[in-house]
Amino acid sequence: MQNQRGIALLVALILAVLLSLIGLSLTLASMSSIRMTSEFESHERALMIADAGQSAARTVLRGKSINTLLAQSTNIHIYLESDDTTPPDGSPSLRNPRLPVEARNIDFKLTPNPVGSRLMNGMLTPSLGSEIVVNNYTGLYFAKLTDNQDEAILPAPDDPKADLDGKVFLRVLGIDRTIANEVTSHGSYFKNAVAVVETVLKRDMTFQLNSPLALYGQNVSANFDGNSFEIDGYDHRGVSFANLLKGNCNHNKNEEGFSGIGCLYDASDQGDAGSAVEKLKDLLTKGDKNGEALDDNVIGQSERSDGTLAVNDDTDTVRNSDNPDAVNIFNPLFLLHFARMMGAVADTTFEDGADPKPEPAIFGTSEAPKIILAKGDLDISGSGSGAGILIVQGTLNITGAFEYEGIILVVGEGNLQLGGANKAIAGGVFVANIANDGTVGVPTISINGKCEFYMKSDSIEMAYSLLPMRVLAWREITSEIEPN
Amino acid sequence: MNRKGFSFVELLIVTAIFTVIVAASLSLAHKAQFSFRAERDFTQAAEQARIAMDQLIRYLRQAGNDPTGELKKAGVEAVVVTGSGIVINSDITGSGPVGTAPSPGNSYDYGDPDGDNNDQMEQVVVQYAGNSDNGVLYLDIGDGNGSQALVDNLADFQMEFFDRYGNATTTDIARVVIRMTAVTGRNDLRVAPGHKNRIALRSSVVLRNKTLDLYEPPPEGTPAS
Prior knowledge:
Oligomer: heterodimer
Structural class of chain A: alpha/beta
Number of strands of chain B: 7
Largest sheet of chain B: 7 strands, antiparallel
Strand content of chain A: 25-35%
Helix content of chain A: 10-25%
Low-confidence stretches of chain B: 97-110
Number of domains of chain A: 2
Mean pLDDT of chain B: 84
Helix content of chain B: 25-40%
Structural class of chain B: alpha+beta
């Protein structure tokens, strides 16, 4: 019996070895499967991080001048000795906020000593990137803005720090940090998963208005009451709103002038907005109900040229404008869609019939301009002030004292009623009556009491820079597309 | 001292027991071998299908990339549905020769999308040739090498197309749902003699270039939302 004990040991050993072999083979198979899936997963995650970074970087652009961002330079540490550290002139790799090879190999949480540094323009993130959380997962992203270099007339070199057409490249590199899990058991180790996303962004300049009051339609319905309003088409660029309010705007007639009231309607075979212009001129010349002529209350370009009222048909000006977005203003579907879409980006949204209280109602300030959307009628019966963009889909009825700097869009019902206490608007007002099916109707304005409209192109620019950038194109940069 | 050896019967019993144990262990090992092989086959099949899926997703994601607006002007659709698959159009790579200095007549935008879809990876032709468990998905990326098999062990491959409002469509496609079922090459003897393992993959790809522009108004006739 003693001998059988030895057999038991042997059998137990053999069994143990066999079982562990089976176990091991299964584990290896599933491990390779897991590893494979996790590599797909980390690339997807890096892409999500890059995309999230891209959205975050776009919010940085809000309200900022593109040129300022392009010109700002950041000192970037370089961690790898590489021939690719500085891509050749004109190479699209120059748009990378970080070299992809560096992003793959360097652990940005435990950076080695830099081997050098260089100044980079247009960085929207710090040298070591910004952290972002996507689906409870923290990643790192780097973002850089680059001007598209196709604006200059060849062979003149294009200034990379100056944007002319509102179009820029935004490249974002996202890193899913897997380098910390370095595994050497198979003689291999993980590198960071990296994804580079490039978008072409465009500032929408549809509302680069050409007059302090623009009316869209073949005809208008207007009512002017009293002699105390003024619509001033001389550009008050560079004059602060505060100074304007104090009356310190002694513009001379040689300043660049725009129309006082600009009428817009794109139908050359029907004389564009000619009949609207005639109607307004007629009304203003005839005067108000007391017979007082109002023809010197609307000043601007036309007045300078031939001494008549500064009410113009601006349709051609828009048609021939250098601004590629300007013609959108003739697309009623664009305008309707724009007014609706603002619901997604507005800082404040009012429901139909709102009367913002308490007084004074603040619709943004010069320091912090806002996008405000009224989804229907907006009655401002108390005093109020604001800066930015105010979009009203119904009737905008202001009876209290009101000061505004920026753009006011009354798109939808297209009814602007101003009366009662003093008002001053610097920038531009656009009124359009568009039905839900895109039919263009007659805009209505009623001006009663002391109202001042000042053309101010810099306020208009400030306002439309608040709008989210258009994303014209999206592509993922891979080593196939861009070998270096 | 006990010098007595094993009796014959004792040896016989030990040998019999040992044989039974070894036989059992061998059959276990054999099963383990099957298991290993089946797992490896499955992993390989799944890997092939995943790589194919990943490739397709990448091309589809940036379909319709058109920064210069030229493709839109020319009426080129991002995804064109054909009888046996799709054609993915985009303008993602530059065609300028490497290192060319910008000069008049020479694209200043070297490396930029250039307004056409003739370059490598810009017009990608995807074709599926179904054949019970050996369906092949072919990809032609325009590099001069013609159609190359991307994956050749599919039992099923299907695509569904939607516009940006979620309606099924074959024009102005903004989202594509891809379904593919990959099959292992060999039978899995653990389950049944003729059994092959399958893995079904499904992906919903949003064409980024068709959905990102907030400003683009819906086409005429679309009811107000």
